[in-house]
């Protein structure tokens, strides 16, 4: 296990260097003046331009600029937002809210996805299975902002069950609707993953053995089938996190949830390029760390991964 | 003693049920040879979902190519603020946007934007993914090590976030080509991974060894023998990536880093309508329906193709 962890950590280093370099390259090595380009149609004041030039060390050769930027990241310095607040401070204030929203969304999508996937898989080809497929295909086809607006319109405006925007402090009851919206993106994937995995497991020898030992279906399904079907669903969590980050940017923006996503959303909408770059960098770093953790968790769950070369 | 025992036999002997030799030996030599593709086609054409998605895609393509067949109303000029968020009128079946433009006409003219982005991104993703995946899987060793790590790096940045950064920098140059490039340049690793895994499986087949023994060059083996036999999963993932690309463009336009507002785009229209969700929900819902139906038709096609080409998916149906 220690060897596996060490190998996995070593593998993460080139990816970490590569992703940060790529982001930096995209912003600062493209033709034209990067500072001016980052502001789009707005014209920044000369003082701001000068400050940013200094901040991003644009007077240095490109590769030196990159390493200075990387050094800043390791010291926890992600730059300052447009209003002059350090990005790390904004992160500290907004991250707990996003985490709460994400945990709630993962909870909803896991409970609904695994339940429906399990029933579909056990009754393959039935009415329930067919309707679950249709619903999941439709949900996959609906972009997240469409789902968010429709939910806001129906449940917030028409029925009045939820507030259309989240009040300050982001209490749990206000986060329920945004979390459900966020959960719909991955719900379909989890349902289908669980269904395929259940169908696969149901034909395994150990399930037949359990049945021939005289165990009831009621015991075989949760203990033998479900538990063994969940491993691919756990790995999906890593991919899911990337999906959730993009989804949270849109959902938090629409429901006005005071989290990391809304900060990025507003920076994008207002064309505040430098803030966008800082937040995307932070999100990619978080994504890398989560991926690493999920990989390690996966190795704990499935010993075959540990020993495979 | 049972009556069916013959006098000379001490015991009962079961009569021999001979299988006619003809039935065993008959091989339809003149029949059509069956392969993955003919099997897939036989499977696909029996499914209603295939015909529904094919009809919808055909409709979307025709609308994109010939918007003039469907509406005579110009989508951009001729907008009158007096019609702002107005309901349907004769010749304007779906009513008007906030700027007083005809919603139906804007939906019809926005089709080609979504479809072009989808096709260009798919082309970029398929080209990069096939080249990278084929080289990594077939040549192995350091080529694989380098290309796979490169893929890991691109894969670690969610492609919409990457596209947001690229489009923020290139906002003055935003057009269909630039936005497609911004999406496609980060979306290829999934395709490359799928193809690489399939090539690793195929390249140890007997027919590859036979070709090697015949002295066929490595590159020719890759292109003529290995690639055609490992392309099926790529086709499945490509159909689905077309749908994802259309969603990505709409999302970027919705975030305001997509196409300029002068370009007809469903994402732009949805973005502009969001402030009037309370008073005029139809201005937001109608382009959303057009977008979702288009995406759904490609997703359904991908679903049918996956079921037909992937034996495992077929068994799970």
TrEMBL record, chain A:
Gene3D superfamilies to which the protein is assigned, alphabetical: MetI-like (1.10.3720.10)
One GO cellular component, as annotated: plasma membrane
Alphabetic keyword roster: Cell membrane, Membrane, Transmembrane, Transmembrane helix, Transport
Any single GO BP term: transmembrane transport
InterPro entries documented for this protein: BPD_transp_1_N, MetI-like, MetI-like_sf
Record keyword rRNA-binding present: no
Pfam families: BPD_transp_1, BPD_transp_1_N
Subcellular locations according to the entry: Cell membrane
Membrane-topology annotation of the record: Multi-pass membrane protein
CDD domains named in the record: TM_PBP2
Domain ABC transmembrane type-1, first and last residues per copy: 95-298
Hydrolase recorded as keyword: no
Top-level taxon of origin: Bacteria
TM region(s), chain numbering: 12-30, 101-120, 132-155, 175-194, 233-255, 275-301
Family as reported in the entry's similarity comment: Belongs to the binding-protein-dependent transport system permease family.
Protein's name in the database: ABC transporter permease subunit
Source species of the chain: Agromyces bracchium
Automatic annotation (TrEMBL), chain B:
Membrane-spanning ranges: 50-70, 115-138, 150-170, 176-195, 233-259, 280-301
Keyword Transcription regulation among record annotations: no
Locations listed in the record: Cell membrane
Keywords, alphabetical: Cell membrane, Membrane, Transmembrane, Transmembrane helix, Transport
Topology in membrane: Multi-pass membrane protein
InterPro entries documented for this protein: BP-dependent_transpt_permease, MetI-like, MetI-like_sf, OppC_N
Gene3D superfamilies the record matches: MetI-like (1.10.3720.10)
Family (UniProt): Belongs to the binding-protein-dependent transport system permease family.
Name recorded for this polypeptide: ABC transporter permease subunit
Species annotation: Agromyces bracchium
């Amino acid at each position: 296990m220690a060897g596996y962890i060490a190998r996995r950590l070593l593998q993460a280093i080139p990816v970490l260097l590569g992703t940060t370099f790529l982001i930096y390259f995209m912003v600062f090595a493209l033709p034209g003046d990067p500072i001016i380009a980052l502001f789009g149609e707005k014209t920044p004041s000369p003082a701001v331009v000068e400050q940013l030039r200094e901040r991003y060390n644009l007077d240095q050769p490109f590769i030196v600029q990159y390493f200075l930027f990387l050094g800043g990241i390791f010291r926890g310095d992600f730059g300052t937002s447009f209003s002059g607040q350090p990005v790390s401070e904004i992160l500290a204030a907004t991250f707990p809210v996003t985490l709460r929203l994400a945990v709630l969304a993962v909870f909803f999508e896991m409970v609904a996805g695994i339940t429906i996937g399990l029933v579909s898989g056990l009754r393959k080809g039935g009415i329930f299975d067919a309707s679950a497929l249709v619903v999941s295909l439709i949900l996959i086809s609906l972009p997240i902002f469409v789902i968010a607006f429709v939910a806001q319109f129906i449940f917030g405006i028409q029925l009045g069950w939820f507030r259309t925007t989240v009040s300050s402090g982001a209490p749990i009851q206000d986060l329920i609707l945004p979390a459900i919206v966020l959960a719909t993106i991955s719900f379909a994937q989890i349902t289908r993953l669980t269904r395929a995995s259940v169908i696969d497991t149901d034909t395994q020898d150990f399930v037949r053995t359990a049945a021939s030992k005289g165990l009831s279906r009621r015991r075989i399904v949760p203990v033998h089938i479900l538990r063994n079907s969940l491993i691919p669903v756990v790995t999906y969590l890593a991919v899911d996190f990337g999906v959730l980050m993009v989804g949270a940017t849109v959902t938090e923006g629409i429901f006005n949830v005071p989290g990391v996503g809304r900060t990025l959303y507003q920076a994008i909408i207002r064309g505040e390029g430098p803030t966008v770059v800082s937040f995307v960098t932070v999100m990619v770093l978080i994504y890398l760390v989560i991926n690493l953790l999920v990989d390690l968790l996966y190795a704990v769950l499935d010993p075959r991964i540990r020993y495979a070369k | 003693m049972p009556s069916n025992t013959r006098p000379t036999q001490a015991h009962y002997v079961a009569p021999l049920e001979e299988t006619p030799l003809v039935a065993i030996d008959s091989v339809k030599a003149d029949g059509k040879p069956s392969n993955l593709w003919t099997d897939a086609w036989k499977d696909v054409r029996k499914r209603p979902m295939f015909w529904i998605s094919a009809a919808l895609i055909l409709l979307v393509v025709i609308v994109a190519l010939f918007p003039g067949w469907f509406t005579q109303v110009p989508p951009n000029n001729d907008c009158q603020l007096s019609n702002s968020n107005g309901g349907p009128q004769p010749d304007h079946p779906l009513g008007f946007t906030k700027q007083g433009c005809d919603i139906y006409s804007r939906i019809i003219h926005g089709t080609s934007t979504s479809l072009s982005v989808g096709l260009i991104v798919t082309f970029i993703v398929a080209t990069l993914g096939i080249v990278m995946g084929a080289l990594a899987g077939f040549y192995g060793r350091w080529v694989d090590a380098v290309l796979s790590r490169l893929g890991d790096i691109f894969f670690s940045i969610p492609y919409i976030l990457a596209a947001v950064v690229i489009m923020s920098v290139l906002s003055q140059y935003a057009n269909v080509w630039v936005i497609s490039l911004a999406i496609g340049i980060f979306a290829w690793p999934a395709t490359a991974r799928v193809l690489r895994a399939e090539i690793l499986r195929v390249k140890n087949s007997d027919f590859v060894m036979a070709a090697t023994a015949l002295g066929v060059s490595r590159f020719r083996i890759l292109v003529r023998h290995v690639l055609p036999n490992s392309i099926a999963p790529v086709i499945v993932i490509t159909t689905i990536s077309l749908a994802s690309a259309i969603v990505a463009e709409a999302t970027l336009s919705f975030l305001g880093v997509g196409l300029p507002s002068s370009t007809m785009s469903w994402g732009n229209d949805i973005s502009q309508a969001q402030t009037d969700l309370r008073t005029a929900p139809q201005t937001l819902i109608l382009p959303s329906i057009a977008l979702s139906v288009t995406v759904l038709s490609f997703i359904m096609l991908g679903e049918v193709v996956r079921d037909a080409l992937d034996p495992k998916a077929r068994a799970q149906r």
